[in-house]
Design a protein that fits this description.
The protein has 21 helices and four strands. The chain has about 600 residues and is mostly helical. A hairpin with a 2-residue loop joins strand 3 and strand 4. The longest helix has about 70 residues.
Length: about 600
């Protein structure tokens, strides 16, 4: 009996190795996979090779019988000999089959025992962990309160002081207390401060909750979103003043701040939050501050080109906010790691980081609940976000169309998610693709569209975002190593692109008319008949500036982080997608443990 090819039965591991990153039962998992592979190989051998041998023996026996002559004594003897040979060969084949089946069932029993032992070990491990946590809670470790001034802290303080000084020098108040940019004018849905309140909730409450979906990155998702929004809010005010003075020419003047100013600053904060969601869990504090600084700079440069020079209609920012932020975020996320992948040492491959931290990137039940609360807040405040700067004659249409479009995108996102996810809903799509209608309807389309048109746009945006989440995101991550953590391409870029294209088409059809729903056309589309061409131009400019600015910023962040890691005498341990490096976490926090090989350090794996 030929058992040589099945002699590679794996031996059980000599010790249990706890590994929370590669897998809790890494050696036993390898043994389990080997058993499954061997069982499959034996089963295949039984069903193919042994079955083929049986077929050959039967065929030879039939041929010998057909070759016999007339019924005489020699023919009868030959038939008996053939039958005896056939029975002997069949007994041998059956014995071989029985032996291999016994080996097969032995492997299956070994597999069952291994799985049961893994369950017992895991229960014992969880029990011991609970006891250790309860003991450590009785004598908690005192936090280290000694001040630590490193390069990041000094850089952060320097930027903060510079920002305060520039504010003192450049900002002031208008002389007229009854100022239209503070109080609004007639034919408005609400005054500016009410819009500011809604959009502030959108930015400072909704987005932080939406970015808290990673199970071990909830502190960071919430707190860093607040930090990013605050920095971006302040810097957007300063960049607006810079570009406003460039537009006005010399002599330069101090900016007279109004409610309108701080609402505009919230749009810049939204851009920075969208960019942050693309690099969620993969950026240090110094990198985050640099990215926020340049994101607001390029955002305001894009606004200057698209709104001041080209006079595009972009009140709620389909191009300047969502399309630009999506392009910028994708480019930053890619070029933060691309140089490292190209120039990195062969000793630590880039795929190691993505594989090791794959469990930490996943959400938990409660983190998904927090994120969906953020979705609900964004859903409620989206009409104010899109309608705050809409023209007086069209503001009520914008608000109503946004409500209709976002409700329709919710319905179609639920439908598409259930269809493309095997009859179940995927929470990431429910959290983000449902908002696609609000993003798409932030374009000029909302000012001159009927409610039916808003429904069509919302349905298209919801479908596009969900299909992208279901198909494009997995392909991009597996084949190209894409690092779009929250799917910015799916929930921001594609819906904004859909809305911008719809706005170009709709503007080309109605802007040449004298009236749009009873309003003079030039009040809604300042360039009237030529408005569609300008809308197409600002679309391409927003994408181009977003990609270009993102590439430069991402490479700059990688270069600074690489340089700092080389200057540091003792590289510190990197821990992606975890609150532990930046926060005092409670005792029940699941810490990242590496038991296979060395810990990754900044000099080898940072931003890879």
């Amino acid at each position: 009996m030929d058992k040589v090819q099945f002699s590679n039965l794996p031996q059980p591991p000599t010790r249990y190795n706890d590994d929370r990153i590669i897998g809790r039962f890494h050696p036993r998992l390898a043994y389990l996979e080997a058993l499954e592979s061997l069982a499959e190989e034996i089963n295949h051998y039984i069903n193919t090779t042994i079955q083929a041998q049986e077929t050959v023996v039967t065929s030879d026996y039939s041929k010998r019988l057909r070759a016999l002559g007339d019924n005489n004594e020699s023919a009868e003897q030959a038939e008996r000999d053939a039958t005896d040979d056939f029975n002997e060969e069949m007994r041998t084949i059956k014995a071989k089959r029985a032996e291999y089946r016994r080996l097969y069932y032995k492997i299956i029993n070994e597999k069952k025992k291994l799985i049961e032992s893994m369950r017992v070990n895991r229960a014992e491990e969880d029990f011991v962990k609970q006891k250790l946590d309860s003991i450590s809670s009785l004598h908690p470790e005192a936090p280290d309160r000694s001040p630590r001034w490193n390069v990041s802290s000094i850089f952060y303080l320097f930027l903060l002081i510079c920002t305060i000084v520039i504010f003192v020098v450049s900002e002031t108040w208008p002389w007229d207390y009854f100022y239209s940019w503070n109080n609004g004018t007639t034919n408005r849905v609400a005054d500016f401060f009410l819009f500011f309140t809604h959009i502030a909730i959108f930015v400072f409450v909704g987005f932080p909750l939406l970015n808290s979906y990673m199970r071990k990155y909830q502190y960071s998702g919430l707190v860093f979103s607040l930090l990013v929004a605050a920095w971006a809010f302040l810097w957007t005010i300063l960049w607006r003043n810079l570009w406003g003075n460039i537009e006005g020419g010399l002599p330069w003047e101090r900016d007279r701040m109004t409610i309108y100013t701080i609402i505009a600053a919230l749009y810049g904060a939204t851009v920075a939050l969208v960019v942050f969601s693309a690099i969620l869990g993969r950026v240090t504090l110094i990198g985050l501050v640099i990215i926020t600084f340049f994101a607001t700079f390029w955002y305001n440069a894009n606004n200057y080109l698209c709104l001041f020079l080209l006079r595009g209609v972009d009140y709620a920012g389909p191009n300047s906010v969502w399309l630009f932020a999506g392009s910028f975020g994708i480019a930053v996320a890619t070029f933060m790691i691309l140089p490292g992948r190209v120039f990195a040492s062969r000793k630590v491959a880039w795929v190691d980081t993505a594989f090791i931290y794959r469990r930490d990137r996943l959400p938990s039940y409660y983190s998904n609940v927090f994120a969906i609360i953020g979705t609900l807040i964004l859903f409620v405040t989206f009409p104010s976000f899109n309608g705050a700067f809409a023209p007086n004659a069209a503001q009520f249409r914008v608000v109503i169309n946004v409500i209709i479009a976002i409700c329709t995108s919710v319905v179609f996102a639920f439908l598409a998610s259930r269809v493309f996810r095997g009859g179940k809903w995927h929470m990431l799509e429910i959290q983000r693709a449902t908002l696609a209608g609000g993003i798409a309807c932030s374009s000029a389309f909302a000012q001159g569209a009927t409610p039916g048109g808003a429904m069509v746009l919302g349905a298209a945006a919801g479908l596009v975002a969900t299909i992208s989440y279901a198909f494009f995101n997995p392909v991009g991550e597996k084949r190209f190593g894409a690092v779009d953590e929250s799917g910015v391409f799916s929930y921001a870029f594609l819906p904004a692109l859909t809305g911008s294209i719809a706005a170009i088409i709709q503007t080309a059809l109605v802007a040449h008319n004298r009236y749009v729903f009873g309003n003079l056309s030039y009040l809604i589309y300042p360039l009237e008949g030529s408005q569609a061409g300008h809308q197409a131009a600002i679309l391409f400019i927003s994408i181009g500036l977003g990609l270009g600015g993102g590439i430069l910023t991402g490479f700059l962040v990688w270069l600074i982080e690489w340089g700092l890691s080389r200057l540091t005498s003792s590289p510190r341990v990197v821990s992606y997608y975890s609150d532990e490096p930046n926060f005092l976490v409670p005792n029940d926090f699941e810490r990242t443990i590496h038991s296979d090989g060395p810990l990754p350090v900044e000099s080898d794996t940072q931003f890879r």
